[in-house]
Every structure is written in structure tokens, then in C-alpha cells.
Amino acid sequence: MSDNNTIKCPVCGADAPASGTCPECGFEVIAVAGEPTDEMRQWLDSRVALAKERYEKQKEQMGRKPRGFLVTDRMAVCCLYEGRNVFGSAKANESEPTRQKVILPGIALRPSQFVIDTVVDGRRSKFFIKELEEEGTASMVFVNQTTNPATAPIELADGDNILVISGDNRATITFRTNTNL
Fold it and tell me: DSSP H helical segments within the chain, as ranges?
């Protein structure tokens, strides 16, 4: 450290202001005047532990190479990574870290609506879409045409359209293997 106004960030180890936000990981460093109480120390330690966990997950995701992309009608882009990619109305959680929230105006998606499994074989990737079934509900996810529901795994090809239909509302999501839109 070069001066008393910087410290090593307790989350990522970068030089950070003694009180403020770490420029590397965004952790908010809190300066405590005097010796912290046991309760304060526990709270500070739990903040650091939670932030480290989030930072490590973020680094892991950032290090992964996208294998494909979904592009909505409104030009929102979702990345497809190797393995299971879940899409719906809910954000990622610990049991499904690759779950991504998709917003399609006028369409109420379930928390987990469909999955795209990405299988990597050397430099080539294969993508299979399947709607996650919920008993008693009609299919909402189709590939290229409404006569092709994704009730069983369907292999996707570059440029395929994923149609999501709810009542009179329809949204199109285009599958791409590269970012040339």
C-alpha cells in the first residue's frame, strides 16, 4: 500500500480505499472507528463472506465462453453456456445458477419456462431446446412454427426462431451461434 487511505480489499485483494467502494469487485469497504464489538465483527465477517461468494461466482461466469445467444424482438441478448441453460420469469438462484430472466411483453412466463442444453464436442456445439412442463398447462414454446412445440428436445440451428405464445400475444426469440445479428 502506498498510503493510509488504501487497504487490500477483503474480498478480491485489490487496492481499495480505506472507506469506500473497491474499484475491482465493487465491495463497499466500511471503516469502523475503534475496536468493533463481537456482534459488529460477526456482521462484518458475514458481509465479506457473502461478497466473496458472489465475486467468485461472477468471476466463474465471466470466464465462461458463450456458445450461443438468444436475441429477443427487443434486441435483448441472453448468452448460452455449456451445459443446462434455464429461461423464465425468475432470476438465477443457487440451485440453477445458469437460469436467466427473460422479459417478453404481454407474456407471463413461469419461473422456469424452457431449457436449452448445450453439448460441446470439441469446437462444435449442439443446442437442444425443451419446454419445462407444468401439468395442466398448454405448450407455449415452439420452434419456427406453431405446429412444432418444444415438448420434447429439439435441436436448434443458427437462425431458428423460438416462438413463445400466450393467448393472443406472441414473441419471437432468435437463436444465434454468433453475435452477428
Answer: 38-63
